[in-house]
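Summary for the funding panel

The consortium committed to producing paired sequence-structure records for every protein in the target list. Below we show the first two records in order, beginning with the earlier of the two.
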Amino acid sequence: MAAKDNDTRLKKRKQVPGGTKPETNRSSDSKKPRLAGSKPTNPRNNDSSKPFKRPNPVAEKTTSLSKKELRVRAKELAEARKKKRKPYYNLEHELAHLWEKMRSRDISKEDRYNLVSEALQKMKGKIPEIASSHVSSRVLQTCVKYCSKAERDAKKKKAEGDVKKRKAEKDAVFEELKPHFLTLARSAYGVHLVKKMLDNTSKQQLAEFISSLHGHVATLLRHMVGSVVVEHAYQLGNATQKQELLVELYSTELQLFKDLVLKKEGRLVDIIAKLDLQKSSVLKHMTSVIQPILEKGIVDHSILHRVLIEYFTIAEEFSAADVIKQLSGPLLVRMIHTRDGSRVGMLCVKHGSAKERKKIIKGMKGHICKIACDQCGSMVLVSLVSVVDDTKLITKVVINELQEHLKDLVFDKDGRRPLLQLLHPNCSRYLTPYDLASLSLSIPSLSNKVEADIPSEGKESETNDPDENTKLVDGGKKDPSVRRQELLVKSGLAERLVDVCITSAGELLRSNFGKEVIYEVATGGADGILHPTLDDKLNELYEAIATLVAEHKSDDPKEEHLLENFHSSRTIRRLILDCPAFASTLWNKALKGKCELWAQGHSCRVVSAYLASSDSHVNKLAKKELQPLIDAGTLKVPEAPAAIETKE
């Protein structure tokens, strides 16, 4: 019966009249709407759930502290953490105070030397441990710097005791750091200390340091920080020490055995021939050294540039082309500031494909003016305007940027080089023998292939772009005169250049470097490239120079007349000899009837040039007025034209 009663109760609970759920008290079970920002109640957070929770005394103290006291407390905690982390924290703190005093400009030399001695005494025995620290590294650099200065000052005063004392202090630092140089060379802060040590070491200590690098040169060159130390040692070393660093990168045998290094043989080809090394093994070793460096982009150092030049002399066609491909682009811009780097850049321009040349030119975009004003970088621009056939790209990137800074470039010793190369190509007057040799340099493995690929005369390439598939040693397939015409005249560079010469004629003629530019422009360039397109502009230039010459002499000795200035008088004389049109304009507008005034000093060379000219019309202009001056002995008879030309 009890079981039946339970079943009936369950059934009654399940049966709901009308199919609806039984109504419940909504006030107790319904959910209340949550307000924005209200937090759900968590029974665990109630204080009643943790009746035995300990109060936090630190939290109670911090809540009662002011903002200033909180800052002081935070500083104390930071100091405590630093002391735990840095074993020499207190020492560095003391050294920092001494450093602030010793680097002050108001301190006397004696007081500074005493502070240096005190700092070195505190660091004695702990230098290797603290040398990599940001603060301690700077303190050590200052100590080494002023130890050397103190030594030099003591030598001037002939104080032998002070000299020995300062030298002993500096040598003690060197000896203590000597076993740790390789570690410090890889440290972000230690590297600066190593460089400062090298700058102030003796010749013997420098030799010891370079010897300590033996076997580690390649690995350090692959390190972003360590490569700086190798480059610094390479720059400070003599020819033998430089060779010692280089040969380690050539071959495994030379890396393992120092005695195999030949001091007299500098070129890699000669070393291979003398030591009878296998060319394939040398090439394999150099490739394994160079490739990781290029992949990391550590290409700023001159030691690497020298290695690349030597690598190209033995590299096979595929290996050389692969290196050129890697360098083509922004990487090359970072290399062309050194002599060997500039040569590498010229080789990449000469042997690179059209695609690679395009990358090189686009990588220079925005840096053309800076490159042009660099002694080595300007030669790469000279190579570009002499070799690349894609004149549209050269005009767009190089010529247009040169035009923006044209007035500054014509006065710059190196900035004028690309302009002079277009006006008068490969002129020994403007390019040194080394520069001309660099322009004719080539990669043997690639030049042999190019010579085989050059089409016979009379056959034109099927491609529209002559620079597309062929790499020529002496330039592209386009005629050099056509290339010059497109880059100089059709681009508008020549017209802009003549305008600059007209507005700045006086400054250019008086300038040691600008006079060459105005001379080439006034004569119309080699082969008369500016004629007849710019004849009217050139006549304006002649008129501008003649107007300046026609000015009266100034009473102020500081303001030299054009005919009395050393540079301008000789440039005007050359123009009279080489440009009859200019000579006629100058005579009619400035010199006619005034020759007696200019018959002495620097100006006499200008007047006498009319008689030395090879043009008969120019001779006739001045002969009538100059002959009485020659008879009276006022004006000297000029030498024969041939002798004058050889002197000029």
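The next record, for a separate protein in the list, is shown here:
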Amino acid sequence: MGFSKELVAKAIEENGEENSNLILESLLQYSANTLPSSSNSKLIDHFVGMGFSEEMVLKAVQENGEGNTDSILETLLTYSALENSAPMKQQVDSGNCSSDYEGSFLDDFSDFDSSSESEEIMNPDSDEESKLLYLTKMGYSEVEASIAMERCGPDSSIAELTDFICAAQMAKAADALFPLEDEKPFCNNPKKRRHFDLWKRNKQMKLEKRLLNEDEEALHLPNPMIGFGVPTESDHITQRTLPEAAIGPPYFYYENVALAPKGVWSTISRFLYDVEPEFVDSKYFCAAARKRGYVHNLPIENRFPLLPFPPRTIHEAFPLTRKWWPSWDPRTKLNCLQTCIGSAKLTERIRKALEDYDDEPPLSVQKYVLDQCRKWNLVWVGRNKVAPLEADEVEMLLGFPRNHTRGGGISRTDRYKSLGNSFQVDTVAYHLSVLKDMFPGGINLLSLFSGIGGAEVALHRLSIPLKTVVSVEKSEVNRNIVRSWWEQTNQKGTLIDIPDVQELNGDRLEQLMNRYGGFDLVVGGSPCNNLAGSNRHHRDGLEGKESSLFFDYCRILDLVKCISARNQ
């Protein structure tokens, strides 16, 4: 067919030998990218004129497509940084530096790995100036480090601060918590540097314009984020006073992302009878962070955790990774589990960035790799080899039974999406544990935006019988998962599926409550699509198309309370 052996080999490596259609599609894409079209040629000439090599430009265009010049430039800058780190390694070995910049750069990091400094800085009791110095030595800007310490609190560890910075960087295009990184120059080409500075200035102006339109008021989340208490910490609050309108039954339990736009949690609290949110990070229950806010009217004394305790560090959860884990990767916890995973291209790029170094790679390469590992929750599975978590592993971290999301023809992509939007079962079960003695004969549950049944699984693992569950969930995939779990666990109660919250009007609710005896608990976590920082397009708060479904939760809860009061 006229394709070169190199292109064929590359296509087979990316797609496997069995899928000929994908291989052919890749080959056609490669050929299209290398055609000397006038637009393609102008684009290549543009970046070559900035000082990048033609080979590097072709590779970046192939990865990102011709239409996204910002992504092409970011890729080229990444390539340049990695390319320049190789001679840096040789200069360290020989003791000679070719420029004043490289010499001062290495001097800045001369004590980076010393055990005494590391212990002092990693210590939560270290002062803020030391942490600021340490973060800037890692390559983060002083502005990033300062904002991270302000948001996370002065007692935060270095690992928590770097996780916060990486999470904010993922959301930067939409949320813009930080200015663009104040990077040191990594090349001596004035033309390339000038174009980079112009691009950087443009990004900065967009950020400043947005920040000028924002109120300075921000939600200061608690640190540590343990709510009224968690099993692993000694500080516990066992009494609180609820507003009279909030006192149950029925009990309610609402969850959403903690790091929502300004004013969101005040609105949520106001619509849910002025109950103050309980903010909890699931890193206290498992090996992955998951910062969430919970508004509920449950008792808070006599809580107890699910047993056995789940693994709480990466190495406890995945002991085989210990063999390959490099000493310069300080992570002990994973970041929040997302709805998608890192690509094969990314993991291959990381492998290539590391393979030239027998010992520890330069700090610039370490920072690049660690940033990607934190963003995408990559774990070490071989020498210089990282991989994303498998769906079964995500299930385990979130407290679901093995293969909970498998079966029924569900795709791998849908499994990650469903899991990324779910509850962390151990966290939710700890809060719901107070219901076990209150409902020994079983519970009637109204589960709104059920997802894959996190609340149902939590109650089942607490050995609270599920008498009746009305599960409202838009996704057919998720409804099938819950139905399959219900059957596999031999539930004796009644499961009712409803695909749309709009179907739950007063008449339908009254019919269900009269038939099954009312609802003891109303659980829900409305979609966070317009709240989460990782949403790059429509972070519109509770006015967003998806997240405005929160008001349906409030509407339905009010109806349940009114019908319950009338029936009494």
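Regarding this second record: Confidence is low (pLDDT under 50) at residues 85-126, 172-187, 210-218, 533-539. The first strand starts at residue 251 and ends at 257.
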